[in-house]
Amino acid sequence: MKDLHFKDFFWNSDLTCTGGYDAIIQYLNEGKRTCKEMEDLMKARASIEEKYAKDLLGLSKKVCGHNEMNTLKRSLDMFKLKTEHVSLSHLQLAQTMREEAKKLEEFREKQRDAKKKIEQQMDTLHKNKSSQYKKTVDLYSKAQQAKQNAEEADRIYYQNVTSLGKVRDEWLKEHVKACEMFERQAMERINFLRNVVWTHLNQLSQQCVTSDELYEEVRKSLEQCNVKEDIEHFVNLRRTGDKPPAPVMYENFYSGQRPPTAPPPSRLPPPVIRRGPLPDPTHNNREDTIYSTVQDTEYSVIHN
What we know:
- This protein has helices at residues 6-9, 19-60, 70-145, 150-223, 227-238; strands at 289-290, 302-303.
- By secondary structure, the chain is mostly helical.
- A two-stranded antiparallel ribbon has the order 1-2.
């Protein structure tokens, strides 16, 4: 299949028409706009990555598991460290995106300057062509009407046709050059944009791989976390004793007998021993008198 080129398919039958040329210029302007949109997109994505990296870095500095010990503490510390590494990788990605956006901006400006130079040349040629064509048409009309000055008009007409032919030849040559240049620019832009997007996606894919590798180190650290070992570590580090306090025994000061010797301490709470009924002051029987066992002269007798 024959290759299609700008110089072969953007002509017009009307000598003064610039429709084909205008179509190429419009296509290049749209391509320039696409480059600018892609540049803005990459800058915006870089800002998002930078903000995410800073937020993630701040999150990695927060206290987490400060009071934990041993393997779980090591795992949590590893988790915070790798989170910080992920944030730094996103920060690096943001910087890389800005550099790529800068390259795209420089490429766009380079094409803009080259295109502007050719456009100025072509605009001058278009004006000369239109002006010469109008003059030629006017003289052609005069040549038809002025039969008396036919020879002079014919000579002038011939000269203008000749001049028009020269302008036309120059315009044809420059038009071909412009079409070739514009086509190269379009091919360069398409190829460059394709590579930019390809590189951008590769960077995002690599970021996913990097993040997964960092998280995998955290998972490996978590595999070393031993619940039983951490509990034993805490017990051995902060133990306070393995014997509970002995129960408090009850001693009845209102009875003539002291309670029997208490059995070995039990881990159960002491039984509740209720005191007998209070003495009735209406009975005053000496035979029922029992003296307190407390050696205190200020204690009085108790009547049962």
